[in-house]
Amino acid sequence: MRFPNLFIVGAMKAGTTSVHRALSAHPAIFMSRVKEPKYFAFQQDHSPYRGPGDPGNKRFFVDSRRYLALFRDWGKERYAGESSTIYLYREEAAANIHERVPEARILIVLREPVERAYSNHRYAIQRGLERVRSFRDAVSMEEQRIADGWGPLWHYKRKGLYAAQLERFLRTFPREQVFVGLFDELRDRPAGFYGRLLEFLELEVYPLPVERVENRGYLPRFVLIQRLLGLANRLPAGLRPLTSRGQLGRCVQRLGGWLTSWNAGQAPALSKEDAAWLGPFFEEDLDRLEDLLGVSLEAWRWREDLTTPRSQG
Are residues 44 and 81 in the same domain? Predict the structure, then answer.
């Protein structure tokens, strides 16, 4: 069995699921059917995270044999890939990937950091893992939560400090092995985005399925129902067959799907007040990121007179 040679490393809530699915349709690329195996993020000793129901503690693929089994069907395709958005943020991941696969191709998609943080917060609420529904309040609690040992899911601001994260990969891999794309292009000009990506991978143009990545998502109408659904998704391994197999499993899944749809309320857009409040936090990092990428990121700089957010997702 072979290690993969293509990695979508982040950022979280920047359209990586859409990129993963699109690349899996290319005849020269085999993408793991499991997203977020996180194998290279947690190879060193690490104390458990302390956030409530912290998903960072679910490292199902730390065993190399189990991880490599994800690619057992990799045949003659030029690339085999996986997507773990924690790799961009976790300091050890770049070196761990390089140690095993120095020739790997690295794919990075970056999203305007305030919108990324807001989407991250909504996602945590959807999963029943964030009890603070106010975006500003949750962000204000971030540093204390990190000090208390909460995992990356709740690092809303810090995950958007891209410069140091990108520098780690550029120091570890040759520049020609690292692709950096922007969520803006993926959302607004997907044909151009995927054209550049296939050129980077030295693959022939192929009609990839393009998904809409603009999606406001939802917020649960009743938090208790969402928490109960979240608990059902986190059953101990011995009880999971009850919800996934046989007639009982099918009934449970149908009920869970119906409850999820019924409980889904419209998510509000990011307010210009919250954007203007958080935006200055990223100004210095955006300066560094512009130097690294050689492009202007002026459209990512929130101003007091901004009247509408540029994207929702």
Answer: yes
Q: Which residues of 112-144 are buried (b: 16+ CB within 10 A; e: fewer)?
A: bbbbbbbbbbbbbbbbbbbebeebeebbebbee
In a domain, 109, yes or no: yes
Q: Which domain holds residue 40?
A: 6-216+268-300
At 119, which CATH number?
Answer: 3.40.50.300
Q: What are phi and psi of 55, to 5 degrees?
A: -65, -15
pTM: 0.85
Q: How far is the C-alpha of 183 from the C-alpha of 165, rounded, in Å?
A: 17
| pLDDT computed for residue 229 by the predictor | 67
- As a whole number of Å, the end-to-end CA separation of the chain is 37
> What sign results for the dihedral spanned by CA atoms 175, 178, 180, 181?
positive
Would 310 be classed as within a structural domain?
Answer: no
Q: Is 190 helix (H, G, I), strand (E, B) or coil?
A: helix
Residue 198 and residue 120 share a domain:
yes
For residues 51 and 149, membership in a common domain is answered with yes
Residues of the chain with pLDDT under 50: 215, 237, 307-313
| Both structure tokens of 176 | 């020609």
| Count of the separate structural domains present in the chain | 2
Say what the pLDDT of residue 140 is.
Answer: 98
How far apart CA 23 and CA 19 sit, in angstroms, is 6
Which of 275, 298, 274, 302 has the alpha carbon at shortest distance from 287? 298
306 lies in some domain:
no
203 in Cβ contact with 22 (< 8 Å): no
- CA 211 to CA 313: how far, in whole Å? 13
pLDDT attached to residue 16: 96
Q: Do residues 157 and 279 both lie within one domain?
A: yes
